[in-house]
Amino acid sequence: MVVGGGPSGSAASMSLAENHDVVVLEEHEIPGEPLQCAGLVTRRGVPEFAKQSILGDIKGARLHSPLGFMLTLEARATRACVIDRSHFDRIMFHEAVDRGAVPMVGTVVRSVAAHGHEMRVEAKLEGRSQEFSARVVVGADGYKSICRHAAGLSPPKHMLTGIQVDLKGVEIDPDFVELYFGRSVAPGFFAWAIPAGDLTRVGLCTWDTELAPAYYLKKFLSKPGFSKARRVSLASGKIPIGPGRTAVSGRIALVGDAACHAKPLSGGGVYTGVKGGELCGHVVDRFLSDPKVKDLREYDSLWKDEFGRELSRAFRVRKVFLNLTDKKLDKALRIFAEPDVRQLLESRGDIDYPASLSSAVLKLAPKLAQFSPQVIESLL
Ligand SMILES: Cc1cc2nc3c(=O)[nH]c(=O)nc-3n(C[C@H](O)[C@H](O)[C@H](O)COP(=O)(O)OP(=O)(O)OC[C@H]3O[C@@H](n4cnc5c(N)ncnc54)[C@H](O)[C@@H]3O)c2cc1C
Question: What are the tens digits of pLDDT across the range 243-265?
Fold first, then answer.
């Protein structure tokens, strides 16, 4: 049984449905609604059959410091793409159903509990309670995951809060995303403007602040360039970052945001969710098919090998970022703009694995160590 029909749940369902009976319980009638995403992903996060959800390619980023400095990073080839996230989620969900998963939309899971070798899942459907039993539960139920609570697994280290509007009438370079940093812009994270077809997605995340993200967004939208644009839609949501050591407890395995697998430096969780869903599906398949496989722990080794080390490294880089004053952030961006460092970032930068470049960057620019010597030493 899979709880949650987002990209992670659909990916897990796809890899399981070939050999097993899979039921997907999704609380909303339409998967992918309401939208809670800017849609910036790498192409490796978009399976071939979902390519039609791509709205455009991105070649680079402009990073705006709080003191007005701007660093442009431009790759020779496409580095990322922007997807229509609702469309993407629907394609993923329908693909899982085509491969044999049984969808139950409008079904809100209320509790998950183990009874011997069986899992019992209690849900509400059309106002009535219903109980399901399953041999394994894949928890793909996003940031507020009931499955995570039921499994007694660690909450995220940080829970970011995000808000975003789609604007019509903004003049933006279609090849670049614009990222804005600063404690008065988006404390604890950053703000963005992302070209998305004929719209521009403008939003931000914050962390550990008293004022709501809407306060910062209102201020951000008063910038020239945004202030005259027409607002088409508004979305908000949370992003759990900093996973625990395991995503498995007994017969429950967590994937995607439920497992806090979103990337600490960008907040992106589509790639890790889809990849983790696939890996989890394979391990559950082996567990259900082969009596010699006694538990689901192999899934932990697989997600850690694939992206877990990157997540913990990126979380350490985030700690350095959180300690930077606006002045130091400006200084750091100016160091990234030095020709050797910039060339390295442009040639090898990867938004799915940004922290994997940290030791190479630090070797080229040892003066970055001034910002947090201890943490930076641990990254070398
Ligand atoms: C403002 C914002 C911008 C973002 N921008 C990006 C971006 O540009 N790129 C990127 O990669 N990521 C981005 N993310 C993160 C990304 O949206 C998530 O990491 C991603 O959606 C995780 O997928 P998931 O399938 O694990 O969880 P979700 O997409 O949250 O899916 C979980 C599903 O479970 C269902 N569910 C939850 N509880 C229950 C229940 N009790 N019973 C039944 N069903 C339930 C939900 O309805 C939902 O369909 C952004 C997030 C926010 C908030």
Answer: 999 999 999 999 999 999 999 99
- What integer pLDDT is reported at residue 141 of this predicted model? 98
Rounded Cα–Cα distance for residues 90 and 160 (Å): 25
Do 7 and 109 reside in the same domain of the chain? yes
Q: Tell me which H or E stretch contains 281.
A: helix 270-289
Single pTM value for the model: 0.97
Query: What's the token pair of residue 104?
Result: 């139950």
Query: Does residue 146 sit in the same domain as residue 248?
Result: yes
What residues make up the domain containing 257?
1-39+84-156+243-296
Strands 137-139 and 128-134: unpaired
Same domain, 25 and 119: yes
Q: How far is the CA of 103 from the centre of ligand 1 (A)?
A: 18
What would the DSSP string read from start to end of 167-215? EES----TTEEEEE--TTTSTTS-EEEEEETTEEEEEEEE-S-SS-HHH
Q: What residues does ligand 1 touch, defined as CB less than 6 Å away? A: 3-9, 25-28, 31, 36-41, 108-109, 140-142, 146, 162, 164, 203, 237-239, 256-258, 262, 267-270, 273
The per-residue pLDDT for range 294-342, each reduced to its tens digit, is 999 999 999 999 999 999 999 999 999 999 999 999 999 999 999 999 9
